[in-house]
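Protocol step 4 of 5: obtain the predicted structure for the target chain.
Materials: sequence only (see below). No template structures provided, no constraints applied. The aim of this step is simply to have a reference model before the mutagenesis design in step 5. Sequence pasted as it appears in the construct record:
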Amino acid sequence: MSASTASTRVPLTRDVLANTLREEASVWLFVAKTLTALFVAGWIAMRVDLPAPSTAMITTLIVANRQSGLVLAKSFYRTLGTFAGAFGAIAIMATFPQQRDLLLVALSLWIGLCAGGATLYRNFKAYAFVLAGYTAAIVAIPVIDNPPGVFDSAVARLSEVLLGVLVSGVISDVVFPSRMRDVLRRTARDQFAHFLGFVRDSVGGAIPRESMEKAHLRFVRASVTLEDLRSSVIFADADARARSNQMRLFNQRFMAASTSFQSLHHLINRLKRARRDRAADTLIQLYRPIGEALDAPIEAGSAARILLPRLTAARDAIASSRAALRATLDDAHDLRDFDTGASLLRRFVDELHDYVDTAVALQAPRVIAGSAERVRFDRGNDFVGAGIATLRTTLAMLALGVYWIESAWPQGGGAMLNATIFAGLFATIPNPTRATWELTWGYFIGMVLGFVCNFFVLTQLEGYGLLVAGVFPFIVVGVMLMASPRWAGLGLGWALGLVYILAFKNTQTYDPAHFINDAVAQIVGLLAAAVSFIVIPPAIGSAWLRRRQLARLRAQVALAAEAPLPGLRHRFESVNHDLVSQIAAQTEPGSSDSRALFAWALAVHETGRALIELRHDMVRRGVPSTLKPYLDAALRSLARFYEKPEAPGYLLARDAVATAIASVGEHDGSAHLIEHLHLVRMALLDGESILAAYMPDTPLSKEIVHAT
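Step 4 output (C-alpha cells):
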C-alpha cells in the first residue's frame, strides 16, 4: 500500500469516527434532556399537587425532539390544541349534560373532525388538530357521569400540559441547544448554491430530459423543505421571525426562477431535437452571459458584492446583443423561435436577479419593516382525503363508545381515550397501520416493564430522588430508541406505556388488579385504532389519492388560465411544488407512476406559467375586442384539456392555440402575445412529453417548428 493511499485513508477514517462520535453525542444529549424534562415536570407537578403528574410527564415525551426549534414549535401548537380541546369539551358537556349517548356522538364527531383537519397540514399545525381532538376526550370522558366537574377537569388538563410544555421548552432551549435557525440558514444556502451552480453548468444549452426531471425533484423538495423549516424556526428565533416574510419571498422567487429555467431549456431541447440548430445555437449564445456572470463563488454571503453586479451586467449584455443575434437569422420560423426563447430568457434573468437580490436582503444585518413583498405558501390539500379520516375516526370512537355503554366496562373510558389519541396522531402518516402496530408493541413492552418497576422496585423506595433512580433503568432504553428514525415508534410506545401505566401521584397506589385492567384497556384502545385503519384505509399513500393529486396538479393549468390574477403566480408555484412533493413522497422512485408524475409536473409548470404571463400581458397592454375571443378560446380549451386529458380535447386545444396565434398575427401591436402562445404551442407538440400520448398517430415533429 502506497504512502499516499494510507494518508488518504487516515483522514477518511478520522471523518467517519468523528461523525460517529458526533451522532452518539447527539443521541445521548437528547436522552439526557428528555429524561431531565420528564422528571423535572413530574417533580413540579407533584409539588403543586396536580391531579395527574403523569400527564405533564407524557407531554415532555410527546414534544421531545433533538432540535430546540422543533420542541418550541410543537409545544406552541400543543398548547393551542389543548386550549381548543378543553373549550370543545366544555361546550359539548354544556350542550348535552344529561344525555350520555348524545354526548358521546358529539364527542366522536368532534374527534373525527379534528383528525380530518390534521390531514390538511404537513407540519405541527396538524398536531394542534390532533390535540384538540383527544384533549376533549381526556377532559370529558372522566367526568361523563359528573357534568359539573368538566371545568375542573379542563383546568387540571391545561395545567398539566402547559407545565410539560414549559419545562420541555426551557430545558431544550437552555441546555446545549441545537438551533433550528442554523439548519434553516444552511438549507437556504444549499438551495441557493445548488440552483445557481446548476444554471451555470447549463450554459452549453441542451439538458437531457431525465436530468431535468431529477433537477425538478430537487427544486421541489428544496422549496417545500425550506417552507417547513421556516414555519418551525419562527417560534425559536426572533431574527428568523422578523425575516419570515423575506424567507417566503426568497423561496417564491426561487420557484419562479426554476420554472422559467426549465421552460427555457425545454425550448432549446425541442429545437435541437427538431434540427433547428441555428435558432437553438443563437439562443445558447444569447444565454452565455448568464454562465459567465455565475462563474464566481456562489455563496449567499457574496451575492451583494459579486453576483448581483455580474447579473445586472449580464442582463444588460443580453439586451444589447439580442438585436444583433436576431439579425443573423433569416428564416421566419427561426425568428419566431428566437423571439420566443429571448422573451423567456429575459423573464428568467429578471427572476434570477430578483432571487439573488432577495438573498442579499436576507444577509442584511437589520430588517426593514414592510420592505419585502407579502407572499404566502399555499398548500395543495385534498378535502376528500380529510373526509375519509374524519369518517374513520368518528366511526371508531362511536363503536368504542357503544361498546363501553352496552358492556358497562369500568375501563372502557381508558380504551376510548387511547384509541382517540392514536387514531388522530397516525391519521396524517402514509402507513398508519404499521406505525400503530409498532407503537403497540412498544406500549406492551413499556407496560410489562412498568409492572416490574411498580410492584418490585418502587414499593421498596421512598422519596422523589429514589423514584427517579428506580424508573431510570426501565425508561432510558425507550428514550434512546426515540432518537432512532428506524425505532422511534417502538421507543415512543415504550416510554409512553411505561409512564402512563405507572400513573405517578403524590400518593402512589399499588393495586395489581386495577393495574392489569388498565393495561388491558390501553392495549384494546391501541388495537382499536389499528383496526380502524384496516377497516377504512387511509387516503395518504394510496393510489387513489395519488390519482386525485395528479388530477389536482393538472387542474393547476385551469387555475392559471381562469383564476383572478392578483397573487396567482405565487399561488400557482407553491401549490404545484407542494402537490409534486406530496405525490413524490408516496411514489416509488423510478416507477412508471413516478415518471408520469414528473412528466406531468414539467408540462403543467411550463404551460401554466406561460398562460399566467400571457394573461398579465393581455391586462397590461390591452387586447383588441376582435382578438379577445380567440385568446379566451385558447385559454378555455387548454384548461379543459388539462382537467380531463383526452385525444379530442388535445386536438381542440392545439387548434385553438394555433388559431389564436394566427389571429394575433393579423393585429398590429399584439405581437408580444405570440411569444407566450408559441411556447404553449411547442409544448403541446413535444413528441417526448407526456402529451404525446394524446397526439394523432401521424408524426407531428415537423409541426413543432412550423407552428404558426
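Step 4 remarks: The mean pLDDT is 81. The chain is about 75% helix and 0% strand.
Proceed to step 5.
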